[in-house]
Amino acid sequence: MSSQTHEFKAEVAALLNLVTNSLYTNSEIFLRELVSNAADALDKARYQALVDSEFAGKELEPHILITIDKQAETLRIEDTGIGMTREEATQNLGTIAHSGTLNYLQEVQRARAAGEVTEASELSLIGQFGVGFYSSFMIADEVVVNTLSGKPGSEAVVWRSKGDGSYEIEPGQRQTRGTSIELKLKSDAKEFLDRWRVEGLIKRYSNYVMHPIRLRVIDEQGEDKDPEPKQINAAAAIWAQSTSELEDSDYQEFYKHLMGGFVLPGDEPFARLHFSADAPIQFHALLFVPGRAPADLFQEDRKALQLYARRVMVMENCDTLLPQYLRFIRGVVDSEDLPLNVSREMLQEHKSLAAIRRQLTRKSLKLLAELADEDAEKYAKLWNEFGAVLKEGLHTDGGQRKELTELLRYRSIADDEGGLISLAAYVEAMGEDQKNIWYIAGPDETALRNSPHLEAVRAKGENVLLMSDPVDEWVLQSLAEYEGKAFRSVTQGELDEPAEDDDADKDDDADKDKDDDADKDDDADKDKREPSPIDPLINMAKVVLGARVRDVRASKRLTESPSCLVDPAGGLSRNMERILRMAQPGTKVGASPRILELNPDHPFVAAASKISEQNKDDPRLPEWVEILHDVAALAEGTVPDPAGAARRFVNVLTQVAADESHGSAD
Ligand SMILES: Nc1ncnc2c1ncn2[C@@H]1O[C@H](COP(=O)(O)OP(=O)(O)OP(=O)(O)O)[C@@H](O)[C@H]1O
């Protein structure tokens, strides 16, 4: 087949434009990207040779050769990897493998224009996303790829492009399996013809690539200075070395390699776990808890642990080695006991992996628990990054519930600075009279801290956990109690009642039974209610508010505010309803009427009650009742009719002003 010219897909053209025009400050990353592609190709070849008996080039020694050609002013990165067929070259080098890459680049460009991105933060983002093959156009006027696939019957192809919107593809001459990528360096990129510059970059970014990387230099006269090119990377399986042989700096270097080459100051890992196991399965593991949550923590194709079998990488991202709720952990697992010549799908199912996973899970949780014990400050940072993910485990992994429960941390009203508290510390600080672990849940922590619902509990000197993470109440459904103390919401039921029926609390379905339960509890409440001095106002309020409230009653939880809205005991909390609606848009869950509680000791409530007692037809009463309802809704940010509420407030203020000017006129 002869030479053919193809246009790049639109997104590649856009990417190239961004790469050549915005990323010049970090142009050196191209070498790491190309070396990492070459290493991937070598891993793939090694694996393919094991599973496909027809695969060509089995005799080739896996390695990467970098050639600096000072005479031709080119840099070549060559591997004896899997190679590409014509179709693969068209597909892989003509389109963008990761859709996220383009979005990321656009974001960098936008943020740069707005002055929000520093060079360092951009570098760390590149490390996370990888700009890939196209980064070569940052430093090259032309890129020529010579490749031969190991697939039986493949023909060599040459792919070339100037990065200007099109590429050419034609038959090639390459005789051995693998790929060479030749870069015709731009005039301002001649620094990459310098041996020390290139060697330094390899040591910095690619030292732990598990294949030998060799460097060869051809001088200005075309003379080969290194007929036997020397290896410039360590290529060591650090995880298989004993901990006593390794220094902290070795781990730091390896972590950097694992994270794509960049770790910003302050983002160093929170903890690491390096161990080898012999029975029942032999394996080495080197795991890190990263110092910062990655951008892809909640994405399907996020980075996971690398799986090696006898030093051969068999899976770049093996997400079966740890449960989902530990998905933020990064590292390497290498086992002698895994079969190499099976498909990835079969490997994922292999029973050894389940055994490794059990050990890794147990040890990882222990590592976190130790960190929490030894360095509360560091653990608090870790919790802020990964707490939301860890909490998922309480729902999904009953076997580790105890360990996970001890890892939970909450902010609480006892600490205005936002410090975290464990459940153990909470229970430890409980007074003799306190029966429950109090919490308040809602979307906004500041609103929670200021909530009127806390008043009586706070006045008694009891602490309340603040739960502003959407998963918090879900977690409580699988927890229900800690050390025999039930979790109780300060916004639900009567505060001095014992904990409600657990079953009703645990059920997260807003089904009919649940509502019936809540009704039952509520009716029971009504029957045994003591008479209150504000009963006249309560009766009046029930008439004025009608179906908008489930009930009106005198409050035992308010000491300062005049009113608040509470959820019935045993029913779904307002926050939970909100979360269910978010999780299942269009569902009918929620907005069920709530209970209005009035504070008998508040002067406004007392005055309103006195008026209702003396003259239940007083024209001010309906508006005052509405105001008490408005104030309660306002405190939690759920006023149904803001304009109406504002009008009512102004009416009262106008009245106060009129009374005042009367008073001063007298
Ligand atoms: N040296 C090589 N040998 C064989 N295939 C290669 C080589 N270099 C690149 N490729 C192919 O081209 C594809 C695109 O490479 P590119 O670097 O753009 O993305 P990637 O490596 O898949 O992603 P990332 O760089 O984000 O990890 C690769 O997935 C691979 O299939």
Largest sheet: 9 strands, mixed
The CATH topology of the largest domain comes to Heat Shock Protein 90
CATH superfamily of the largest domain: Histidine kinase-like ATPase, C-terminal domain
Provide the residue-averaged pLDDT. Answer: 86
Proportion of β residues?
A: 15-25%
N- and C-termini, Cα separation = 107 Å
Secondary structure tally: strands? 23
Overall structural class, as computed from helix and strand content, comes to: alpha+beta
CATH class of the largest domain: Alpha Beta
Poorly predicted ranges: 499-520
User: What helical percentage do the residues reach?
Assistant: 40-55%
Count of the domains = 4
Bound molecules: adenosine-5'-triphosphate
Strand order of the largest sheet: 1-6-5-4-7-3-2-8-9
- Radius of gyration from CA coordinates: 33 Å
Identify the CATH architecture of the largest domain.
2-Layer Sandwich
Which descriptor suits the 3D outline? elongated
Number of helices: 22
Task: Summarize the structure in words.
By secondary structure, the protein is an alpha+beta fold. The chain contains 22 helices and 23 strands. The relative contact order is 0.06. The model is unreliable at 499-520 (pLDDT under 50). The structure holds adenosine-5'-triphosphate. Adenosine-5'-triphosphate (ATP) is lined by residues 33, 37-38, 41, 79, 81-82, 84, 92-93, 97-98, 130, 132-133, 179. The site of adenosine-5'-triphosphate has 16 residues, from α2 and α3.
